[in-house]
Amino acid sequence: MQSLLLGIHSVTGLPWWGTIALTTVGARLVTAPLTLIQIRNTYRMTQARPEMEKIAAWMKSEGATNPGASTAAQERMAQVWIKYDCNPMKSLVGTVGQGAVFMTFFFALKSLAAAKVPSMVSGGTLWFTDLTSADPYYGLPILTGAFMLAMVQLNAAEGMQGQPPAMVKNFKIAMSVLAVVIVPFSYLLPQSVFIYWLVSNAMVALQNTALRYPAVKRYFKIPELKRADTQASFDAAASVVKTYRDRPPSKKTYQ
């Protein structure tokens, strides 16, 4: 990544803040297919959730008395995943990909900053001119935390429609806490790292905003989830759970 950044800086002649921003956008576009796979899979998993809840409830009811219940439940769950073309592991693809990109950028920019590359010392703009040092005014760390907090409040739960309300709420709380604590824990990082962070977060915000439009979802083959439909799914799942929980033990196998 260091060589890539140095090469882009040399070829384009952009100042370092522009080089980092351009490379970040490029990296986001390259990994966009992985992100789409994850988002598409998350929506499909949501569609499959009522059937998965039904199988889980049956397994809980029959597991103690039916030795074959576990195998039957696993087979049925696999059939549901095939039916909806989804798999829990696919939901990790985008996260793993973006995590790898983040770590690569992070260590590359830290190494360049530690080497005090001359062009980076004066390659910033506005108040953050020296990209090899920490922000003396704490502006970039605060801006990064504020941007993350705004994203959490606006659309951090995008793609979690149909998930339990408690899960969505806890996710937003956890991300909000992260957005706040990231400021004091990151203020000593080189300012170049925050350029990457801010541009990357801006790309995520644009992505989530675009995915709010049905036409965009249709183009990328992402299922449209309606609030009424997901609530009905929860009601149905809850009813199934209660039914299997309250009935007496049985040795009947799953059909």
Automatic annotation (TrEMBL):
UniProt topology in membrane: Multi-pass membrane protein
Pfam families: 60KD_IMP
InterPro entries referenced in this protein's UniProt entry, alphabetically: YidC/ALB3/OXA1/COX18, YidC/Oxa/ALB_C
Annotated ranges, domain Membrane insertase YidC/Oxa/ALB C-terminal: 16-210
CDD domains reported for this sequence: 5TM_Oxa1-like (cd20069)
Keyword Transmembrane helix among record annotations: yes
GO annotation terms (biological process): protein insertion into mitochondrial inner membrane from matrix
UniProt KW keywords: Membrane, Transmembrane, Transmembrane helix
UniProt KW GTP-binding keyword: no
Annotated GO MF terms: membrane insertase activity
Similarity remark: Belongs to the OXA1/ALB3/YidC (TC 2.A.9.2) family. Belongs to the OXA1/ALB3/YidC family.
NCBIfam families attached to this UniProt entry: yidC_oxa1_cterm
Record protein name field: Membrane insertase YidC/Oxa/ALB C-terminal domain-containing protein
Organism, as annotated: Apatococcus fuscideae
